[in-house]
Amino acid sequence: MENSEQKLKIGPLGESIVCRFLRKNGYSIIDRNYRKTWGEIDIIAEKGGTTHFFEVKAVSHEPNASQRRVIGPEENLHKQKLVRLERVIQSYLQEHGALQGRTWQLDAALVWIDAVNKTADVEILEGIGV
At 61, which helix (H) or strand (E)? Predict the structure, then answer.
């Protein structure tokens, strides 16, 4: 399978895995795939009065745990990406006036998918904004 084809399948799968993970951990999913021309927020959730904007980074790996974290999905969370995400968040907050003034944060959800064993590991990085 071509790399770009893999990304198209792994991205939505990773987002679905993260939504299940978040629900199990007390979050309410508010929205998914909020898009603007300058970026996209994968998942918007709420927990404990805080709105969480999640950037999901998913990778598929072979079931060898010692190799999987050499290059992780967080490698794509560079400063330019974070600035674009915060701009999208500001647009979302403006469009959804009810959220204005609420506490919010930008988080990352890292997903390692083992397609062979049909398992996944999720790690949440909180407060990753610039």
Answer: none
Q: Is residue 88 part of a domain?
A: yes
Using an 8 Å Cβ cutoff, are 32 and 13 in contact? no
Backbone φ, ψ for residue 88 (5° rounding): -65, -40
Query: Distances in Å between the alpha carbon of 123 and those of 17, 55, 84, 113?
Result: 11, 12, 22, 12
130 found inside a domain: no
pLDDT tens digits for 33-73? 999 999 999 999 999 999 999 999 988 876 555 544 544 55
Our count of domains for the chain comes to 1
Q: Residue 80: count other Cβ atoms within 10 Å of its Cβ.
A: 8
Rounded CA gap, 121 and 64, in Å?
Answer: 13
- Radius of gyration of the chain from its Cα atoms, rounded to whole angstroms: 15
Q: What pTM did the predictor assign?
A: 0.83
Strand pairing partners for 43?
A: 32, 54
